[in-house]
Amino acid sequence: MNTATTVAPLATQDADALVAAAQGAAAAAGVHVSVTVLDAGGHLLAFRRDDRAVLISGETSTRKAYTALQLNAPTADLVDAVQPGGLFHTLPTALDRPLLFIAGGVPVHRDGRLIGAIGVGGGAPEQDHGFATAALETLA
């Protein structure tokens, strides 16, 4: 008997809601950001860069989302792991992948399953993490 439960994937409507919520949190703090949402396969579902966000924030938000997705962990929790002597010290240079170990990327789960990730760039790392986690709270 198959007891597997079907979990709804991250839909574009979900991605749009995450982007709007993260941008709203950032705007309330007076910070200009870029927000990226990826599905479970790492494919882009939504992206938005505030007109006044620094240009590199588009790239950092995407890399943060990708890193959170691939490692199924908030990037804020991984910063120490890539420092000299850390568990993942060589990971950023060992793979030809766009990993970025700066706070602001958070995996998205539904019913305990990984369904995607959100990345925010443009503010201080702690701010970006806060905007991403605030966005997750709005996802039903």
UniProtKB/TrEMBL annotation:
Family annotation (InterPro entries): GlcG_carb_metab_protein (IPR052517), PduO/GlcC-like (IPR005624), PduO/GlcC-like_sf (IPR038084)
Top-level taxon of the source organism: Bacteria
One of the Pfam families matching this protein, by short name: HbpS-like
Signal peptide extent: none
Xref: PANTHER family: PROTEIN GLCG, SLR1406 PROTEIN
Protein name: Uncharacterized protein GlcG (DUF336 family)
Lineage, broadest ranks: Bacteria, Bacillati, Actinomycetota, Actinomycetes, Kitasatosporales
